[in-house]
Amino acid sequence: MPVELAAAVAPHGRLLGWASHSEGLIAVTKNALVDIHGQVTTVTPWIDSVQAKWEPPHLTIVFQGQLDPEPTTRSWILDELSQLPRAIRDRVTSAVVVDRVFDLPNAGKVRFVARKDEKSVYWSAIAQDMTASQTEIGQQEIAKAIVELRSAFGI
User: Fold this and answer.
1) pLDDT value of residue 88
2) Which of these, 92, 95, 126, 122, lies nearest to 111 by C-alpha position?
3) Where are the domains of the chain?
4) Which fold has domain 3-95?
5) What is the b/e burial string over 129-151, where b = at least 16 CB atoms within 10 angstroms of the residue's CB?
6) Does pTM top 0.85 for this prediction?
7) CA–CA separation, 127 vs 101, rounded Å?
8) Cα dihedral: 11, 122, 116, 152 (round 10)
């Protein structure tokens, strides 16, 4: 493993895999995704992951932190034989407890995601139509849907 990657991953738990991507290096640790792009290192905890998609050679991960109003999509081009997507799938799967999409009458399509870390579970509502979802009735529908999902899943 390259020295700069070893130094970047050390504080983030056990290394599960790494690979070169088209513009740098990427690593999966137990607690986070570490991406070195040129001189910039970005560390994103798995609790912020929403979903991942591997369509060789493209790897795409959607993240949304607890305070982020909208999700962020990040993509990399990896070697098609890379084992990194498997490690990423395992980490995202361990973080995402519930992932459901509902078409709400006044808020539009909304993805509800429950994610967990060692201490807690938190919910995100990711609306496709931001304008409709931010109306008073849209907010009420989203809040009601989260209450129903929490009750249905017991979390």
Assistant:
1) 94
2) 126
3) 3-95, 96-153
4) PH-domain like (2.30.29)
5) eeebbeeeebeebbeebbeebee
6) no
7) 9
8) 180
38-86 tens-digit pLDDT: 889 999 999 999 899 999 999 999 998 877 878 899 999 987 778 899 9
- Cβ distance 76 to 55 under 8 Å? no
Cβ burial 63-97 (10 Å sphere, 16+ → b, else e): bbeeeeeebeeeebebeeebebbebbeebbeebbe
Sheet with 121-127, side-by-side order of all strands? 96-104, 108-116, 121-127
Long-range Cβ contacts of 131-140 (<8 Å, 24+ apart): 132/106, 132/107, 132/108, 133/107, 133/108, 135/106, 135/107, 137/106, 137/107, 138/104, 138/106, 138/107, 138/108, 139/107
Burial class (CB in 10 A: 0-12, 13-18, 19+), 11: exposed
Tokens representing 99 are 């992932």
- pLDDT tens digits along 103-148: 999 999 999 999 988 788 888 898 888 889 889 999 999 999 999 9
